[in-house]
Amino acid sequence: MTNAISLEEAASFRERLRARSRTLRAEIHDTLMRTDAEQFARIAGEVRDAEEASVANLLVDVNMAEITRDVEELRDIEGALKRIASGAYGICVKCGEPISRARLEAYPTAKRCFPCQRRYEQSRGSTAPPSL
Ligand SMILES: [Zn+2]
Q1: pTM (predicted TM-score)
Q2: How far apart are the CA of 104 and the centre of ligand 1, in A?
């Protein structure tokens, strides 16, 4: 299997994803600290200090609408970082074809190529227009 992107590009995407992960974790931390629940304060500290690979699992029990979307994005970022580490980044998980650079630039966490993403969204009944 050949990598869809160069090592330099992978490093650049990795930095972007890590920066986004830090931002999301800071947001989640602040949100948790605003709540009164004691266990959330403990989790908040762990979220801030943990390696990005394990943050989402800390938050499975935190059922707050405010942070659910952030946690989902964190999960996507963790998946993308794992694909970068394994050399699978930029390859569609569905059909194995390279994902276009434009799509990766716009959606660094993309794991499907555009045609597969469109089919996936159609199969889920999404009415949102497909992105790139
Ligand atoms: Zn595909």
Answers
A1: 0.76
A2: 13
Tokens (6 digits) for 98: 């390279």
Q: What is the pLDDT of residues 27-57, one digit of tens each?
A: 888 888 887 666 677 777 777 766 655 666 6
Rounded Cα distance, 88 and 68, in Å:
27
The rounded distance, in Å, linking the Cα atoms of 78 and 70 is: 12
| Centroid of chain to Cα 109 | 5
Q: How far is the CA of 117 from the centre of ligand 1 (A)?
A: 7
Distance 1 CA to ligand 1 centre (A): 15
Using the mean position of ligand 1's atoms as its centre, give its distance from the Cα of residue 81 in Å.
19
* Cα 71 to averaged position of ligand 1 atoms, centre (Å): 25
The closest of 79, 73, 83 to 24, measured between CA atoms, is: 73
